[in-house]
Amino acid sequence: MESKLVFPRSIRYLFAVAEHHSFTRAAEALHVSQPTLSQQIRLLEEVLHVQLLDRSGRNVRLTDAGEVYLHHARRALGELEAGTRAIHEVQDLSRGTLRLGMNPITEYITTPLLEDFVARHPGIAMSAVEMSQDEIEAGVAEDRIDIGIVFSETFSSEGRSAEIDKHTLFVETLNLAVGKGHHLAGRQTALSASELEKESLVLLNTQFALRRHFDLYCLEYRITPHIAIETNSLNMLVQSASLGRLVTILPSSISEAQSGLHSVPLLPQLPHHAIALICHKGTYKSAACHAFGEMARQWSAARYHALQQRLDEASGQATLDERRDTGSARRPVEGTAGAIAR
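Above: the chain's sequence. Below: its structure in token form.
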């Protein structure tokens, strides 16, 4: 708790006793004498005309009234902390804070964006925490994080949709990926669903949206995958697949960036997914939060144009090669915008 925050001393003392279940340990944590702490809580109980703590047992615990009061006190403290941030996060971004939540996939993809933001705004103290999809959504809804960077087109809980705003940055495909030593490496023909069932997979666990996308895909096409390893680590996912025995599922931007991995076509094709920013709907947004959102949109647009240029160049080269091989007349090259938007 912020020591300089203007908040009634007696309530701060009550927080400490509820946390430590002891007047002695609470007093030690607050660096005050135990009689002073006890007196302040007694005065609070007298003002409220109710007993907040049950002192009869070995450990001190909250009464029912104490639980209810502490719940509202925490909400009030949260509002005061939000007010403190609003004052100090000035519009010129010379200082402030930004709390981000990411999962292993979005962390890997958006790290360049975070580094660019910190370089542009060195006065902003950024806290970036790796979390599961559910934890990110809960953190945003409960104002424990300002922005979540998620891998999903839908919320894991329908109840969250009323509390959270979502802004899609880009959409990309998922890939089946194997190491150089795997027997599928270099395969050009698409793998069938029945063939996929014969392979051993290493996947993120079910807390993560990427896994839920794949599980829905398997359910839709009646695939029973053989999952050899579940993990919450992207690094373990990539390393395990790179060793050459296991198959994994990754976004194309990750699998194509790994020199030790090869993409294998699959039919039916794996679904597309969205990388999106989420924030709490209708609450205060700091200057740092607004600046990050705007920078993310610019970064997304630059990423889109770079990808479009690469696809146009690849498509143009393929057309030239085809003309050399067939001597055919000039034909228009198919546009790539649709491929990117899918």
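The longest strand covers residues 164-179.
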